[in-house]
């Protein structure tokens, strides 16, 4: 072993885009990336929420950029990446995170529900991943980190469109890893279980639901949003240089059960 080859978890000099970075898991990962030294740009649809998030981060000493973009719009995604080209000049890390959910029994899912979830969670991941890959291929380096969910793996009720989108993300992760490996780009996914964020706080107010979740979770507690930072830093940093095409479950042991 060569001591001088011990890899770094540090991200100084790296440039990162985090989609859906105005709140929840995206904002938390953005904060973690900035904490480890990366220059970060957060995106989302709500400009005020982005400005608030960035202002708050500034108060904690992190200078994060923002740009409004709807990931379902090819045009807005292209504008986002052009802006990042101008501001950063390179792209090292993509956190492909923007997502949403509409929970309904199969027989009640409207076509519009399906379209909205699949457009955001799967088409959005594709549009954003494609723009990032173009830049990373030119650079011959990069890290793409897709945010999936345990629901891409386990079959839970009320998740018809969401589970389809997250299963799709797991598969895209493997395909992109295979395609981009020759360009020194790694592609991995993080698949959290239920974590309290603006997306899930209503759903998690039902004590029976929480009890069901805990009964499946080896660690017998809910995950905290900050617990997604470690896996994101690992995949974004040199420490994961020989890891690609993987889905890492951040689920307290749910999927091991
Ligand atoms: P939140 O609802 O808290 O945040 C979602 C983020 O995505 C917001 O910044 C939102 O901003 C943005 N967003 C949503 N739609 C779009 C769009 N069309 N274009 C651009 N941005 C968009 O969700 P979470 O933080 O909980 O979830 C983040 C990711 O983590 C999602 O992919 C989710 O599926 C995944 N996940 C979450 C889990 C959980 O328990 N919380 C568990 C497993 C996975 P805006 O509304 O302004 O556009």
From TrEMBL:
GO molecular function, one term: quinone binding
Pfam families hit by this protein: adh_short_C2
Protein name, entry field: 2-deoxy-D-gluconate 3-dehydrogenase
Gene Ontology biological-process annotations: bile acid metabolic process; fatty acid biosynthetic process
Keywords per UniProt: Oxidoreductase
Family statement: Belongs to the short-chain dehydrogenases/reductases (SDR) family.
Organism: Planococcus lenghuensis
InterPro entries tied to this protein: NAD(P)-bd_dom_sf, Sc_DH/Rdtase_CS, SDR_fam
SUPFAM superfamilies per UniProt: NAD(P)-binding Rossmann-fold domains (SSF51735)
DNA-binding keyword on record: no
């Amino acid at each position: 072993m060569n001591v001088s080859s011990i890899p770094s978890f540090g991200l100084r000099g790296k440039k990162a885009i985090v989609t859906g970075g105005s709140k929840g898991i995206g904002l938390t990962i953005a904060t973690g990336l900035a904490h480890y030294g990366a220059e970060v740009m957060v995106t989302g649809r709500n400009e005020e929420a982005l400005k608030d998030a960035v202002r708050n981060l500034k108060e904690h000493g992190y200078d994060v950029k923002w740009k409004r973009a709807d990931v379902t719009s090819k045009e807005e995604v292209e504008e986002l990446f052009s802006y990042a080209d101008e501001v950063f000049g390179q792209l090292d890390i993509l956190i492909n995170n923007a997502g949403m959910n509409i929970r309904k029994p199969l027989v009640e899912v409207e076509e519009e529900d399906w379209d909205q979830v699949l457009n955001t969670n799967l088409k959005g991941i594709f549009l954003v991943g494609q723009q990032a890959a173009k830049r990373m291929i030119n650079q011959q380096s990069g890290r793409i980190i897709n945010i999936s969910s345990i629901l891409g793996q386990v079959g839970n009720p009320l998740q018809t469109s969401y589970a389809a989108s997250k299963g799709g993300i797991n598969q895209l992760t493997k395909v992109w890893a295979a395609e981009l490996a020759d360009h020194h780009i790694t592609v991995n996914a993080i698949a959290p279980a239920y974590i309290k964020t603006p997306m899930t706080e209503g759903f998690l107010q039902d004590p029976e639901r929480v009890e069901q979740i805990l009964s499946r979770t080896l660690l017998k507690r809910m995950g905290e949003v900050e617990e997604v930072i470690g896996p994101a830093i690992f995949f974004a940093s040199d420490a994961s240089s020989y890891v690609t095409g993987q889905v890492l479950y951040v689920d307290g042991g749910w999927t091991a059960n």
